[in-house]
Amino acid sequence: MNVLLTHGYFLADDPHEAELMRPFPPLGLQYLVAYLRREGVAAEWWDSTWHPGPAAFPAAIDAAKPALVGFYGHTITRPVTAGMVAEVTGRGLRVVAGGPDPVQYLDEYFAMGVEVIVVGEGEVTLAALVAHLQANRGRWDFAALADVPGLAFRVDGRTVRTAARPLIRPLDSLPWPHRDRADLSAYFAAWRARHGETAMSMTTSRGCPFHCAWCSKQVYGDTFRRRDPDAVIDELLAVKAEYAPDQLWFVDDMFTLNRTWVDRFCERMVVRGAQTPFYIIGRAETLEAGQLARLRAAGCYRIYVSAESGADHVLDAMKKGTSVAELRQAGRLLREAGIEMGAFVMLGYPEESHRDVLATRDLLRDLDPAVTLVSLAHPMKGTPFYDVVKDRVTGQRGGRLTWEMARSPRYYDAAQRMLWADEARRRAEGPVEGAGAMGRYAWWRAVMAAEARRG
Questions:
Q1: I need a surface site. Which of 117, 185, 254, 348 has the fewest CB within 10 A?
Q2: pLDDT exceeds cutoff 80 at 207
Q3: Domain identity same for 219 and 343
Q4: What is the CATH number for 16?
Q5: Dmax over Cα atoms in the chain, in whole Å?
Q6: DSSP state of 169
Q7: 410 falls in which pLDDT band (50, 70, 90)?
Q8: Is there a domain that residue 212 lies in?
Q9: Is the peptide bond before 170 cis (omega within 30 degrees of 0)?
Q10: How many CA atoms are closer than 13 Å to the CA of 160, on its beta-carbon side?
Q11: What count of other Cβ atoms lies within 10 Å of the Cβ of residue 415?
Q12: How far apart are CA 285 and CA 174, in angstroms?
């Protein structure tokens, strides 16, 4: 039975990522393909990223000749996925979906034509679905599926959710992601054109035990499972030997969580001569000088920190578990260690005032991150943040929920531009460039102030 997987993500529909141009192939699909192949299934994945839209999808189906098509569902891909599902069902093929979005929008995905939704980790469950279809000559036996953990499906207009499937342990029992040079070529070309270098991604863990109110945990829950350090380095060395990327991005939600593990990883990187430039995400309160020195020796050159806000009461509302003082301390430690900081910032959280936005600007001035990624707060079903603002949800745009924020869209647009202009002013290398950035900063700061006065 041939299986075709896709994520329905088109870079052309994501102007923010197109501006950043730091794309990576979807590790989740690559893990699924590798696992299915190990189980003897003829699995492929179709990367929609570089296509202008779904018009190329029928040709991918023709080439793969699948009996089963699986979609990784995400908030921003839901609108386009509906048409792609219709293409699959119109051919009489079986169709399933998984990922963080479908479990919160079961009715919407079933209405598209999705027949079965995978709830939680996908590898074992998807392999079980393939085996089920093979045993039933390509048809679903929903009575039998009721005994398969980790599923949701609809029978006679009634939604059925089966028992939760146990999480995969140990993670190193999974095969490495299925990587192919042809899949990587477009990514390498995009990185070289924009940044003059290439990058690849890896993961050392799954899950995050923290409870940020806006974070969706539909796939891994609150667990945190980690691979053996030497197993990670084995994969890293193989990736370097095969593809020679200039740097690696460890996609872990929280790389610095376990100090013992991090220290062991860094020690083994040095002992095995595996040092290579890489960057990670870390929590401010987990960073300490000795650990940062060891990370630097292993090749870490940047740590992204979830700063989010310069106001403690906003961080508390987000359930961040981090204070502004800890963020400032993290910035100082990273500077002393010679490691760049990357900062995530979120604007528009319900408790945020105009003064709090300016406090965030002041925090960024103190942290002086090498990269600042700014986002607007948007609620996702299944999160505590959604529960707080669900009565203020007004609709959807591009798959994302829209809601009544405290201030106008023009205010938040100006706030983002003000932060970017302030960063450009700090980075300016000459008086002309500096004056231009200062002018942009002053303009957007004035627009913010005017919008704030309007309430």
A1: 185
A2: yes
A3: yes
A4: 3.40.50.280
A5: 72
A6: S
A7: very high
A8: yes
A9: yes
A10: 17
A11: 28
A12: 31
- Split into its structural domains, the chain has a count of 3
Q: Between the CA atoms of 367, 373, 377 and 381, what dihedral angle is there, to the nearest 10 degrees?
A: -120
299-339: pLDDT as tens digits: 999 999 999 999 999 999 999 999 999 999 999 999 999 99
Are β-strands 300-308 and 225-226 bridged in parallel, bridged antiparallel, or unpaired?
unpaired
* Residues 308 and 446 both lie in one domain: no
User: Are 232 and 154 part of one and the same domain?
Assistant: no
- Rounded to whole angstroms, how far apart are CA atoms 15 and 270? 39
**Model-level pTM greater than 0.85?**
yes
Residue 82 has pLDDT above 90, yes or no: yes
Q: Same domain, yes or no, for 336 and 425?
A: no
Measure CA 77 to chain center.
13
Residue 401 located in a structural domain: no
Regarding whether 361 and 336 lie in a shared domain, the answer is yes
pLDDT of residue 244: 97
Cα atoms found within 13 Å of the Cα of residue 93, Cβ hemisphere only: 25
Element (H, E) at 143: helix 142-145
Same domain, 322 and 353: yes
Question: Which of the 8 DSSP states describes residue 41?
Answer: -
Q: Which of 122, 142, 161 is the last residue of a domain?
A: 161
75 and 182 inside one domain: no
Does residue 398 surpass a pLDDT of 90? no
3-state secondary structure of 394: strand
Domain that holds residue 413: 407-455
DSSP track, 282-295: E-GGG--HHHHHHH
Clarify whether residues 140 and 183 are in a common domain. no
Residue 297 has pLDDT above 80, yes or no: yes
Cα–Cα nearest to 283, from 358, 217, 343: 343
Which backbone phi and psi does 202 adopt, to 5 degrees?
-145, 170
In the predicted structure, residue 400 carries a pLDDT above the cut 80: yes
- Separation CA 272–CA 235 (nearest Å): 13
